[in-house]
Design brief:
Length: 154
Amino acid sequence: MRDEKSPVVNTASPTKEVKILSSPAKDNGDTRPTKRLRTQAVEQINTQVTPSKQENLEVTKLLAAAPIVQSESVEVDMLQKKYIYKLINQTKDSSSRTNIDLIWKAYFNAPDSETMKRGKALVENKTVLIHVVEALEKDNLVMYSNEDGSVILV
């Protein structure tokens, strides 16, 4: 009977079948280079590391991921941009760098007449301050790094 998994080659005789093995038997004493190379290639293929199911799942999740979009949209008006730009100029060092924390501190030390607009604060919290700085970055007035909170005046 013929094995379905192994390929079969028909010879000149219609009744005789020859089976081809997928991996040759290991013969260390064989001096024929082709058989030795084929044996080494099969061993190398068998020893290659295949990614685990967990790694495949992680790659699939990464490829299917959508960019993070902030659900809350904070509208930034021109008055907020002007005032925060003024604070950035006041808190910058000699290399035109400052930090979000320094800007936030300068905002809290400023008089209420500058920080309030129609009885409402220009910047309610630090997140809104970051949104204003990001809006300034979109206008190409500053460069902002979210990693360390540094702001560079352009």
